[in-house]
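yo, CMP/dCMP-type deaminase domain-containing protein is done. seq:
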Amino acid sequence: MDPQTTEGKTGVSRAREDMSAEERAVHINFMREAIAMVTLLPLLNVPQNILSLTHTLQQGELALQTDETPVGCVFVHEGVIIGRGTNATNRTLNGTRHAEFEAINEILTTPASTSSEDLTNAESPEGVSDRCEMKYTPAILKECDLYVTVEPCIMCASLLRQFGIRKVYFGASNEKFGGTGGVLNIHRANGRVPKEGEVLERHKDDYEVSGGWLREEAILLLRRFYVQENGKGWYSVSPFESRCLCLIVYLCMLVETGADVQIAPVPKKRKDRTVKEVEPLEEATQS
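structure:
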């Protein structure tokens, strides 16, 4: 579903009713790319031309198989995705490796050339050539928009402010750690709480935030993670229930497109049956 409300006290705007259908479709498609980072597509036979997934399938699998909170994001520059990220706090044992950090790291470490001569150097102890230049500089983030499934936390909101992100689109609100309206408003006046009746002036480092994009789908992803059979949820679900939750996520994502979704049949598990050899009956002796 699409957000319909306007900007409130938190400074988080939502899609305007007067926004053209084409413009709304662009934002929704990029948000689907972010959701695709953390979904289990092999369970369903979903048309890839609708979800535009390509190589994000393996990263989405990894996000759930390693007990990572299913948060995915993409950075868009002039209509092109230049960075993708998912949570990696468990894989790296580093609490700062949120999806936004991972995506920015990917952007700033992308080499300008993929030539083997530029990428490798036998004399370098790290095996990386000193001549290897990066494709992007931090300045490019000032021209980027971020699409993320969950509202950035306070830490990530501050990081985005320091890099000068242009605008943030998120799905579900983060009522515990949100830094763009959920708890603090880091995107406005660096989170300073206004006095009663005070109107905060816009700072040059402030950035725009629009929330509620594909909110229900983002929430379903979180629910699926917290109830999946991994021992960390408050209860475990059966494989059938887990599959149903995954199906609901995709149906919500594709309901607006009117596309036909074919569900891959679940192979039936057959119990191993050991065939015992039947000993031949002894012929009755004739008296």
